[in-house]
Amino acid sequence: MRCAPFGLMLMLCIDTSAMAEIYRYTDKDGHTVFTNQPPEGIKAETVELPPANTLDASPPSSPSSPSSPSSPSPTLPNAHSTAQAYSSIQLSGIPDAQALRSNNGNFSVSARLTPALQPGHSLRLLLDGQPVGAAGSDTVFHLSGIERGEHSLQLEVLSGNRVIQSGPVNTFTLQRVNTSSPAMRPRPAP
């Protein structure tokens, strides 16, 4: 009986911590600062976060009678249900009309799926038609050392090693400083 009030208080504390607000403001040097406490004397705006990706944990359904043929669970992938399992597969963080500027060739892109990634599925990013890293459940992809020029990115959804759905091909241009340019060479000493 003594544990019930303690458990209730613990649940209330956990619930309120998930609803903490995030504030954004610009400091005196022009840097954007994010914090969980509003600064004194500085106008800060509240940051609205999109809802987190969640999966409903439902127990697997059992057949209604032992003599009935077993049917696959709706959450398990099969050849028919996974053909168009996702209504939207998109990459964000890629500029549409302008070039992506990254002098070291490092940048990140994020995957957005509707609905969220299903159990048993994984994501794979293709750069110029070639896989980048191993397939996994991460929705943020960090690319490094990419050469300047035009490139394409595409997201694939896998079930095991089989591609079940692909997103659109996103073409972009990466700009980097050309260090062999005559303008970048050091001038000779007089």
TrEMBL record:
InterPro entries reported in the protein's UniProt record: DUF4124
Keyword Ion transport included in the entry's annotation: no
Domain of life of the native organism: Bacteria
DUF4124 domain mapped to chain residues: 10-62
Record key words, sorted: Signal
Disordered: annotated segments: 51-84
Signal sequence interval, chain numbering: 1-20
Protein name: DUF4124 domain-containing protein
